[in-house]
Amino acid sequence: MEVTIGLIIVILTWLILLLNLTFAITIIFFERRDIGTTWAWLLVLFFLPLIGFFVYIFFGRLIKSQNFYEVEEEKREAYHHHVAEQLDQLDQSTAPFNHPLLLKHRRLARLNLVSTNAMMSFHNDIRVLHDGKEKFDQLFQDIERATKEVNIQYYIIQNDALGQSLIRLLTEKAKQGLRVRLLYDAVGSRGLRHKHFKDLLAHGGEVKSFFPSKLGINFRVNNRNHRKLCIIDGELGYIGGFNVGDEYLGKDEHFGYWRDVHLRISGDAVKELLERFILDWNRSVPTKTKARKDDFVWPTEGISHHAAPVQIVTSGPNSSTEHLKNMLVKMITQSKECIYIQTPYFIPDASFLDACRIALMAGTKIKLMIPNKPDHMFVYWATYANAAELVRYGAEVFTYEEGFLHAKTLVIDGEVASIGTTNIDARSFRLNFEISALVFDQDVATSVIDAFERDEARAERLTLERYESRTRWIRFKESVSRLLSPIL
Fold this sequence. Notes:
Layout: H1 5-29, H2 35-47, H3 49-59, H4 73-92, H5 100-104, H6 106-116, E1 120-121, E2 124-131, H7 132-145, E3 149-154, H8 161-175, E4 179-185, H9 198-202, E5 206-210, E6 229-232, E7 236-240, E8 258-267, H10 269-283, E9 310-315, H11 323-334, E10 338-342, H12 350-361, E11 365-371, H13 377-391, E12 396-400, E13 404-405, E14 409-412, E15 416-420, H14 426-431, E16 434-440, H15 442-456, E17 459-461, H16 464-468, H17 472-484
Helix pairs in contact: 1-2, 1-3, 2-3, 4-6, 6-11, 11-12, 13-17
């Protein structure tokens, strides 16, 4: 039989259709996904059989969760023992767990201890940074003053003026004999190449990428490490939403001013940040070169006189459940007075949206702020539609007009604040590796609320009248975006 180009195309088409069917069967019977995500992927594979095949390869695969971080059993048992001790102290309200806000929000703290082993730390001094220049000026000063070690991790490090300045500073510290470790995400920081770290590596610095590309192609567009951490000399820690790039200083013409939040922590919580960094670092290096705890500089406990309790809560595609979503939902259902939420993406699942509806109907006030500048079009329209849904139930929703809002904060009753990398969408809840600091402190909560109220002067209220006046074309884009929201 003569082999023609047409015959080859037919054979390849049937092969891809067969693979689509295989993926569909795998999604339905073998992968633990929620129903909405399952249907979304089936629709993609059914209506876009050729394109859907490649979309699934890059975006749809799950990772194996069992012992993803390869923690030794002895260390795992020791950690669980410490968690059990804290649970007992929390339940008995013994010092230091007799802190007034922990007594009031005990169930929230308990949820995080039980679900994700988020140890409670005390004696934390926390500074809230709302501005990019302020954050990076302080970070660079702290790195310049470092005398022992710098461990730094970002989702995005751009190859621009700010990114190059950071790498030069880290190189200088390596020249001084400090141990410098830099971890970046291979997709988020896809503009970086080995040559950009040549001097840093030559002077003893260590650089690794999370889930690196192979042969120039990265088959994991999802399951990215979205965390942003910096631990300096084991005494100072940074966590929040700012990545590294000129746009985060407000220098991008499209986005303009970049509104975000970061925390600078000195105190016992730095130990928990370092524990998380080590897990991510060791996941990115060969087994024989994995770092040991003795290779790091650890904080001295109890050095801060400020008694802000903090839990460092993490979640990822390796998690057995959506820890960070559960924490935020618990915060919403536990609130009695007012909830402040800022997020660039508001694409909650049914459980999160229901929690908001129930809170509103029960008399809790919700104030939500989202950006009015899209960085991802489908995500923008889905966010807009979901925010409008809360307006129907009485929420006050604002669209930030002066630049881009990238803050990821949720504050309840002026007492407890979640600040970190967690967006309110499936990508943060299920697909990416995320981290947030849960702070039981009125000063921190007030700082975030005050910033929200200042932002109201730069925002417009989203009313039902404003929402209902949208064009048919916008309504169509919203409908498509909401249909795809489980996989956005």
